[in-house]
Every structure is written in C-alpha cells, then in structure tokens.
Design goal:
By secondary structure, this protein is of the alpha+beta class. It has nine helices and 15 strands. Strands 2, 3, 4, 5, 6, 7, 8, 9, 10, 11, 12, 13, 14 and 15 form a 14-stranded mixed β-sheet that branches. The longest helix has about 60 residues.
Amino acid sequence: MNSSSRRSTVRIVSFILAGFVALGASAIVHSVRARNLELQVEAANERAVGELGEYISNIQTSLQKGLYANTPDMAARLSMQLRQEAAGAKSSLSQLALSELELDNLYRFLSQVGEFALSLSRKLDSGQEITAGERETLRTLSAHADTLASQIEGIRIALENGTLSFTQAVSTLSSGGGADYIGSAIDDMEQSMADLPTLIYDGPFSDHIMQAQPKMTSGKAEISLSDAAAIASKITGVAADELTNTEDESGTMPSYGFSHGETTLSITKNGGYLSYMLSSRYAGEATIGYEEAVSKAKAYLDSIGYPDMAESYYSVSDGICTINFAYMAGDVICYPDLIKVSVALDNGEVTGVDARGYLMNHTQRAAMTPAITSDAAAASVSDVLTIESVRPALIPTDSAGEKYCYEFKCRGEDGEDVLVYINTATGQEDNILILTYSDDGIFAR
C-alpha cells in the first residue's frame, strides 16, 4: 500500500473514530439530561406525596373536630376547611402518576368528605341536630383518614431514606395496598397531604400573633445603642463593654443585636424591651423537673419586666424545657400576649426567651365583660364532650384581631383532651383544639 493510500485509510479510520466519539459524547449528554429530568420528576413526585400526606392529616383532624362541633358557625367553618383541604389534596394528586382507578377512588372520597361536612353544616344551620349515626360516620371517615395518613407518612419516610423509589411507592399503592389500608368505604386515599400538628408550646394560636404592628413599642421613644447595651448587660449579667453589637434588625420592630459567647439577644430600639435571647449551650443530664423549671422561668420574667405571666403548655427537647407563658389580665388568660421561655434542666439556667408575641400584642385593654354566663356558653359545647373546667380567655383571630371566649377543657369519648372556645358575646364556637401528649410535650391540632 502506497503512502497516499495509507494516508487515506488513516483519515477514514480517524473520521470513523471521531464519529464514534461524537456519538458516545452525545449519548452521554443525552443520558445525563435524561437522568437530570428523571431526578426532577422524582423530586416533584416526592414533594407531592409529602403535601398530599399533609392534606389528608388535616382532613382527619377537621373530621375529628366535627365530632365536637355543636353550633352552625363552627360547623360551617369546619366544612369550609374540609372542602379547601380536599381541593388541595386533589391538586396534589393531579401531579402524581397514579392509575386512573386509584385517582377516581381518591377523588370520590375527597368529594364525599366535603359534601358530607357541608350537609351537616346546613342541617345545624336549619336548627336540626346531628344524629348519632351521622357522628358515627364522621368517626369512621376520620379513622380511615388517620390510617391512610399513617400509610403515606411511611411511604414518605421510605422515599426520603432511599429504601423505596417513587415508582415502587406507586406500585405498592396501586397493587391493592391502598384498598387494604383504607377499607372499602374509602379505598381511594392512597396519598395524602397533612398539616403537622402545631406545638402548643409555640402557642395554640402562635400562627397569628406576629401579624399586626407591635403595640408595646408603638409610640415609645427610641433609645441609644449605649442604653440598649446597658439593658442587655442587666439581662445577661455581662458587662456592657464585653457585649458585641451585632447586626441590628429593621422591620416593624427595629432592634439592637448583641452577643457574648454562646448567647445572642435583641433589644427593641423603641422602648428598650427584650425581644429575644438565645443561648446555644448544650444541656447535660436533667437534675430538675418541669415544676422547678416553671418556677425559675417565672422568676426570670419578673426580673426582666414581664410580670403576671401564667404557664400553659411546654415541650422538652435535648434537655431544654420550653414553656409557653401568656399574660393574665385578672382571671382572663390572654393568648396573644405570648412569651416562650427555655430552661436548661441540668441546672435551671434560662437559655432562651422569645417575647415578640407579647411585644406585638400586649396593651391595656378595656374591661372585658361577657354578655353570657359560662353556664349559658356551656350549652354550645357538644353533648359528646365532658366539661372538666372553664376559664375566660382572649384568643387571636386570623385577621389580627382578638375574641373574648370561654375556654372549656373537655374530655372526649375516647379520653382525649379537647379545648372548646365559646364566644362570650354570641355563644358560638370560635375554635376547637384537640390535645395530644407525648414525652416531648403537648401538641394541639
């Protein structure tokens, strides 16, 4: 073979090899793109599973509350919540690759829940009473929703730790798992979305306490940085010149920030109040209990200018007991005026204070005089609840207002604790909370 032929052969082979390389590179690029798309779809599906679980859990809670609703206003609100939660669950379902049969079943269940709640609301509004059979239906629906929510949570955890892929999860549900878990009455609920219960130590109404302009600091004179440092020094016991001025806060409650070692705190620029304080120190083995922690927290609040606070609920985590305090206006507990205090159970040291709820809402209120007696209000509490105690309470509203209620602590048919809030002016139910207890504290739903 002459040199010209050899060169031609080399060129041809080179072109062929280059083609293979290009094809290989193209295949790799397409493979990477396909894998990235697959991961995105997987993530979207997993997110939808989590959201669906939250909605189903919310539905279960609203159905359980429906057992105790006894006035048209509360029944109407629960009915609206159920319909909204069902709509959210349907939206999440639409993002999942489930079989048509499974989707049809779940959509049917979600529609039935909303319609049944609406029918009960209309019945109460017309002056009729909910029958024992209808309450049993509510109880059955709630139990099915609870079972399904647990199933979805198990799938979510398996997806999170990688022991189950989304494809397998769908396969598990579609192969009859859904029907086995939720029964013939609700064989649709294989995926769900549910709101996690609110930690009561964060306040049963803490979602609403930060929505308004701060009442405590409004109109108060602005203090200097040195004055704020002096206040911070008194609170921490650290000399003012040893405190570091960190980044200040703006917004509706401007504050000076300080730090020293493991502790950070914030002093409002208007009025010079402690907004929050937090120590990141590790707590050792507990040597004190809840009662002593409450005593130390109360004494601390008194010492920094927050008197007349009453403890309500708490949580324990990593050796730290966080206690929820609300202001007492005479015998009225004012939930909007919330302060959280954390106490280390190894030595009783206060390691955290969050007074922002109190600063946002505390004010000198006009005398609160109920239009109806607690005995009259008790008539609005469901007959399936046993009233154990009652006290006047001020609770926040979604629109950043307040309502004066009687707080009835009740025992449900299954032994659960239920808080029912009856408006002192209208006699209507303003809220219902179901309490759940664990080693870590108290939860409200």
